[in-house]
């Protein structure tokens, strides 16, 4: 039928002779004629859609139009001739039929989607493209890759012009326009992508013939197996283009298949779940003509692939066509002589089939059994001669079949019972070289079915003495299954013993490490650390002698990840004598660092450890990470490594053996000297150690414990200067001084406080001055609260730390526009006032502060009074420097409150100073009057309650 259609197309467009014989007719030539077409079985024609009946069917002769019908639908004249009545009358006559269609569409039809439980093809493509590559030159023949190609576009006003133009295009594409290119793999892939874009561009620019020809020429490429190693990748690239072509055809037919709903006069687009009865007859004929045209392709392979690409379009014709079409195409593939080309054609048919119908599975079984029947061709003379020509080993050749066979058999095995597995194993035994089939079966069936027969599969693998198919692939595939679903418990040790004996006998390091990468997970999951340690030792023994490990860093890293993630007892892992030698195999620094990160991340599950072997292992891993940090390391990488090292520092715990703990911290300090965060963590840990020591002895230190806490204070004092951040150093100096003071280590505390005071001026060198000032205000206030209870050193004089602080504050580069320094002086007055009291508001147990040492001695109070005078003078100088304004008035009012609350205003003319400060606030006029009123009321109430005549006199002088 397809051939007759092509012949009629050419005859209809031949020019008429100048003189033609006149013949009288009784009918208009454009009127639809009816011709009886006897149904012929699909197997014979190979193109005509099956009607499901042997009775004659009527087909309008006008539908058998030329190429325009196949690609664009009916031309306007033919369409007008078909319509024997006007459109409105026709619609009225067809309404009863459409009523039935509405009933059909109202039912929920099952979506045509893949419901087979298997790995989708999309997830396999990247693996295929990355695995099957070549360095050989690849050949491609096409009419559409020449840069000089020009397709002339003309404006066709009539259907005859349009058909004539398309025939000219076909002639141009067929006659000498093809070009043969010799390309590298990268160039080949680029050309395939160019063809893909060209097809889509041609389709959207109304060049349907060109799009069809591109699809045909792409499909022809799959008949060529000149470069065997690249054929699976070529299949992926070409079928992607064919998928796009099939989608374009389907959507084109769907947009042309508008129909009329009940009572509507406007056409409506077909819904997603349409039925064939909803498709207009014109759209059905356009769909048939697509299949007719494809059936006229002379070569078998492109004819099969292009029809498979548009197979979904059968849904416009009949809902029962898929089964017959899929089986017909399955049988047609038997005509492909090259077994590799044939198996990938079957793969594409199965891939297309499961996306359009989930109920039909006969064609899936038929495809796989057809491959089994022709399995001997894989090892035939024709195939072997091709391998010799291309210098491809039989082992490599058989692996080319695995992507296609795995997909086909997974589709067959999906939802199948275990009896099918037994049947296929029996059939495999009938073939000599059955390793390829065995590997496909293990990849396709559910892991639980394979694992339950693990010993049987091992017997079959051991029977495969030929080296045609790699034994390591069979072992690896079996390992993937048992890792998902383990064999019965009583078989596991027997399985691993037999498997590991086979793996150990592998001489090729690549094959060995490929198997170990899979089976190590099974061993870690179901055996003790003893077996894991033995296998790790075997890995090291296999790879160390010839330094082969340098080629397999990714596999080794995967092995370490599986061991670490699956190991239940992490301490046992670190204690293995073969574990560190395994890590030593990573000679490349970047790989070793990544592996150490993986291990130390898993260390979070480790609560505490004091084992020397585990501690040394952790220090080794941490040192590797630390030594990888340099000046070029980004900040986020530093942060990650620091966090891992801090976790390890907190994990090592020797309990009551504080000396051993301090020795560990000293060792860690020497090993991690370049990371501030780790050093700060070590200082915190040592301070905690000192506090715990005091808690245990309940504040009563012995000579040994006193020496130990002094050693802790010395550790902190030595470690803090190594930290780069000034902020961190200041905080740690203050903290370490407090801890030393808490343990009655007065000399060490005094040294820490003085070191902090000496460091204060460096803080303002920071770029962010606002942040530095905010931190400094909080820090100085905290420091003053500590200085209150710090006893004076007999070697330094009275209030030595306070004097150093007061001498340091003016040297800091303050912002002259703010009131930070004046406010700090006010805080100093608060501290000095508290220091002059007979008893301080708080103390440290077992530490005598100045209130106990001096006992309110007049000389001590005189020193405090002098220091207050100096602070007051400096504060008034700062107020003068601020100048008139709101800030000056606020400081003046706060100073007034301090003077009246904390000092004896009857001395030294303080009452006059207080009045002057009040007048200054009134003069500025920037302070809230309500606040000033409440201040005056507070002073008045205080003077009356304490019978302080001087304060009452002062209040009377404070006029509003």
From TrEMBL:
A GO cellular-component term linked to this record: endosome
Keyword Transport: yes
Subcellular location: Endosome
InterPro entries, alphabetized: VPS35L (IPR029705)
Keyword Protein transport attributed: yes
Gene Ontology process terms (BP): endocytic recycling; protein transport
Tree of life domain: Eukaryota
Key words, A-Z: Endosome, Protein transport, Transport
Family statement: Belongs to the VPS35L family.
The name this protein goes by in its record: VPS35 endosomal protein-sorting factor-like
Lineage, top ranks: Eukaryota, Metazoa, Ecdysozoa, Arthropoda, Hexapoda
């Amino acid at each position: 039928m397809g051939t007759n259609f092509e012949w009629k197309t050419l005859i209809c467009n031949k020019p008429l002779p100048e003189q033609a014989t006149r013949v009288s007719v009784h009918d208009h030539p454009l009127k639809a004629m009816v011709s009886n077409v006897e149904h012929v079985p699909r197997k014979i024609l190979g193109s005509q859609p099956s009607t499901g009946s042997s009775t004659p069917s009527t087909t309008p002769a006008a539908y058998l139009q030329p190429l325009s019908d196949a690609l664009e639908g009916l031309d306007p004249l033919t369409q007008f001739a078909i319509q024997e009545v006007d459109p409105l009358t026709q619609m009225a006559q067809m309404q009863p039929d459409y009523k039935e269609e509405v009933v059909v569409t109202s039912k929920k039809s099952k979506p045509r989607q893949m419901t087979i439980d298997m790995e989708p093809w999309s997830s396999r493509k990247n693996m295929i493209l990355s695995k099957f590559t070549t360095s050989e030159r690849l050949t491609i023949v096409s009419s559409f890759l020449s840069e000089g190609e020009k397709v002339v576009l003309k404006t066709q006003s009539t259907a005859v012009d349009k058909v004539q133009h398309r025939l000219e295009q076909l002639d141009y594409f067929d006659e000498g326009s093809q070009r043969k290119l010799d390309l590298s793999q990268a160039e080949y892939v680029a050309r395939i992508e160019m063809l893909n874009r060209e097809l889509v561009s041609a389709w959207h620019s109304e060049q349907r013939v060109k799009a069809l020809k591109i699809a045909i020429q792409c499909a022809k490429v799959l008949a060529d197996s000149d470069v065997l190693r690249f054929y699976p990748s070529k299949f992926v690239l070409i079928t992607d283009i064919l998928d796009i072509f099939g989608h374009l055809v389907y959507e084109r037919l769907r947009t042309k298949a508008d129909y009329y709903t009940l009572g509507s006069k406007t056409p409506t687009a077909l819904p997603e779940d349409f039925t064939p009865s909803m498709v207009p007859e014109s759209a059905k004929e356009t769909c048939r003509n697509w299949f007719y045209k494809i059936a006229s392709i002379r070569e078998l392979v492109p004819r099969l692939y292009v029809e498979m690409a548009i197979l979904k379009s059968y849904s416009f014709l009949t809902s029962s066509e898929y089964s017959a079409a899929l089986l017909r195409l399955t049988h047609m593939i038997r005509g492909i002589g090259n077994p590799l080309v044939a198996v990938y054609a079957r793969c594409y048919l199965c891939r297309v089939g499961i996306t359009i119908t989930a109920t039909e599975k006969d064609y899936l079984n038929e495809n796989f059994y057809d491959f089994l029947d022709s399995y001997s061709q894989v090892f035939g003379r024709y195939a072997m001669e091709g391998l010799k020509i291309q210098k491809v080993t039989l082992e490599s050749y058989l692996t080319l079949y695995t992507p296609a066979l795995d997909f086909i058999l997974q589709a067959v095995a999906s939802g199948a019972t275990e009896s099918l597995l037994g049947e296929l194993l029996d059939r495999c035994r009938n073939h000599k070289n059955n390793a390829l089939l065995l590997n496909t079966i293990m990849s396709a069936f559910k892991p639980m079915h394979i694992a339950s027969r693990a010993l049987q599969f091992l017997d079959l693998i051991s029977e495969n003495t030929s080296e045609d198919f790699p034994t390591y692939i069979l072992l690896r595939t079996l390992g993937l299954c048992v890792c998902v679903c383990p064999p019965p418990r009583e078989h596991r040790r027997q399985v691993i013993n037999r498997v590991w004996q086979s793996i150990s006998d592998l001489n090729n390091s690549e094959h060995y490490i490929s198997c170990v990468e899979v089976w190590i997970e099974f061993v870690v999951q179901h055996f003790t650390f003893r077996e894991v340690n033995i296998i790790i030792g075997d890995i090291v023994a296999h790879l160390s002698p010839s330094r082969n490990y340098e080629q397999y860093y990714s596999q080794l890293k995967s092995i370490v990840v599986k061991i670490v993630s699956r190991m239940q007892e992490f301490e046992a892992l670190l204690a293995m004598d073969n574990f560190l030698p395994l890590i030593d195999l990573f000679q490349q620094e970047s790989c070793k660092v990544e592996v150490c990160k993986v291990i130390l991340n898993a260390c979070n599950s480790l609560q505490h450890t004091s084992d020397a072997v585990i501690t040394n292992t952790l220090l080794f891993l941490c040192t590797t990470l630390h030594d990888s940090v340099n000046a070029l390391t980004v900040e986020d990488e530093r942060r990650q490594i620091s966090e891992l090292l801090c976790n390890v520092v907190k994990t090592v715990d020797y309990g009551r053996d504080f000396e051993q703990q301090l020795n560990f911290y000293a060792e860690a300090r020497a090993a991690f000297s370049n990371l501030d965060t780790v050093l700060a963590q070590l200082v915190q840990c040592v301070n905690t150690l000192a506090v715990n020591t005091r808690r245990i002895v309940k504040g009563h230190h012995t000579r040994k414990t006193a020496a130990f806490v002094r050693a802790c204070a010395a550790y902190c004092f030595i470690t803090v200067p190594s930290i780069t951040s000034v902020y961190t150093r200041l905080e740690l100096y203050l903290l370490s001084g407090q801890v030393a003071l808490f343990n009655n280590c007065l000399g060490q505390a005094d040294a820490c406080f003085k070191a902090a005071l000496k460091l204060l001026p460096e803080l303002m060198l920071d770029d962010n001055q606002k942040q530095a000032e905010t931190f400094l205000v909080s820090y100085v206030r905290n420091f003053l609260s500590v200085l209150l209870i710090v006893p004076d050193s007999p070697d330094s004089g009275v209030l030595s730390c306070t004097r150093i602080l007061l001498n340091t504050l003016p040297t800091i580069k303050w912002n002259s526009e703010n009131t930070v320094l004046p406010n700090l002086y006010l805080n100093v007055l608060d501290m000095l006032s508290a220091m002059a009291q007979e008893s301080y508001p708080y103390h440290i147990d077992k530490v005598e502060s100045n209130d106990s040492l001096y006992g309110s001695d007049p000389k001590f109070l005189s020193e405090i009074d002098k220091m207050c005078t100096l602070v007051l003078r400096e504060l008034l100088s700062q107020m003068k420097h601020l100048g008139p304004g709101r800030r000056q008035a606020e400081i003046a009012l706060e100073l007034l409150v301090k003077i009246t609350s904390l000092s004896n205003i009857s001395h030294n003319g303080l009452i006059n100073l207080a009045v002057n400060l009040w007048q200054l606030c009134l003069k500025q006029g920037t302070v809230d009057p309500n606040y000033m009123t409440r201040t005056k009321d507070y002073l008045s109430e205080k003077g009356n309650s304490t019978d302080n005549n001087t304060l009452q006199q002062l209040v009377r002088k404070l006029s509003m």
